[in-house]
Amino acid sequence: MDTEQGEKPLGCNNCTHFYITHDANFRYGCRALDFKSKRQPILIVIEASGEQCHYFQKKDRGSL
Length: 64
Prior knowledge:
64 residues, alpha+beta, globular
């Protein structure tokens, strides 16, 4: 899981597109890429493309 210049991988938990599904076999979902997975979507994206997710949008935590 190499990232450019020691850059820390983005985390799905801080992305507006990330959600937890009700499917016990595929617990993690990404609305931007429209898929569910057994693992965090960012790991699937990095494996497939070798790059960080281009759809990452930081959650606005001000309304909590």
